[in-house]
Amino acid sequence: MTVHDSQELEGEMAELIVASLRLEVAPSAIDPEAPLFGDGLGLDSIDALEIALAISKRYGFQLRSDDEHNHNIFANLRALAAHVEKHRAR
Amino acid sequence: MSWTAQRQRGGGWLGVMAAIALGMGWHLAQALLYPITLVYLASSPPRMRRASRHYLARALGREPRLRDLWRLYFTFAATLLDRAYLLTGRTAGYAITIEGLDAMRQHALAGRGCILLGAHFGSFDALRSIGGADAPVEIRILMHRHMADAAHALFNALDPSRARDIISLGNPAAMIEASECLARGGVIGILGDRAPRGERMLSVPFLGREAPFPGGPLQLAAILGAPVLLCFGTWLGPRRYALRFEPFAERVTLDRAAREAALGEWLARYAVRLEAMCRAHPFNWFNFYDFWQEEQPA
């Protein structure tokens, strides 16, 4: 995967997050390295569920609660996109 | 003092009660409830007592007396003591009547998960007793982080195998975990009258005045399309509880265009039922903070 590809996926997922959570920020305004939960974008675990459902619909795989890497996966947009890139079925 | 700090106080008392219950057995622990309540009441901050008086005045429909305050705190202490037993399924010696279990059994038989929406009312842990009432389903409870930590400590002392029954809301994957449980036909218990700091709150009428309630539990139900039942475990007397299940919503739908308003309507329905329970059993509701936000911030 090239740097260009990963940036493209990050952009696509920023749009997915903004759309599924009906956030009032521009997708391009999401800093890929800023925390998604708590400070930063300020999402909560309900938002995480909506993101997980949107990801499963779009990329064809489930985020699982028992994944030991969850803490890292949900850290920020970049980490989430990297996880999706690795596991996506479509 | 915020309720976050008060909650930790409750968590500490939970540990004390569990230690007493374990060390001395239920009967001695029950006898100790009187001095414990006295100390708890005498040492509780004025703000907390004021908040309790405000609540009692609303629920009783009259000015509360010291005796009423005593009953509220005593009932709270009694449910904490029972918690050590109920949470770990040690329900022998308890007389627990169950009403409305069929509604839940239907969902379980259909292999459908459901959400049990409770409140900080009586003992939600009484629902553990349905494990012995022919309803063998996976039951997991969503808890705020501090309570989850206290409960985990309790489990580790009493019954480590039950520790996974608690899902801590401190974790971003908490709701994903809840959805997996529902997908397996399990039951998710949530207390709907308090929220962790920062959660979106909506104000709805409750006991005569608007009060903020968290939107999260019903949002979860809407996102997953899970049926919702109300669940109240009322403390009636020493080791006596009345557990009650009520159908609430086959499906919570939130109109996309008017989400907030729709969520508010569902919450208002929940608040109506909670209000009725509080009026019927005024000493069973345990939110010892400025619930209606009537006081000016310090």
What does this structure look like?
The complex is a heterodimer of chains A (90) and B (298). Chain A has 90 residues and is mainly α. Chain A contains four helices and no strands. Chain A has helices spanning 3-21, 45-59, 70-73, 77-87. In chain A, helix 1 (3-21) packs across helix 2 (45-59) and helix 1 (3-21) crosses helix 4 (77-87). The longest helix of chain A has 19 residues, at 3-21. Chain A is globular, with a radius of gyration of 12 Å. The two termini of chain A are 15 Å apart. The mean pLDDT of chain A is 89. With 298 residues, chain B is an alpha/beta fold. Chain B is built from nine helices and nine strands. Chain B has helices spanning 3-24, 26-43, 46-60, 66-86, 101-109, 145-158, 174-183, 216-224, 259-280; strands at residues 95-99, 114-118, 139-143, 166-168, 187-191, 201-206, 209-214, 228-237, 240-249. In chain B, 43% of the residues are buried. Mean pLDDT of chain B is 85; it is low at 1-8. Classes of the chains: A mainly alpha (90), B alpha/beta (298). The A-B interface holds A 36-37, 42-46, 48-50, 52-53, 63-67, 70, 74 and B 169, 171-180, 198-199, 216, 219-220, 223-224.
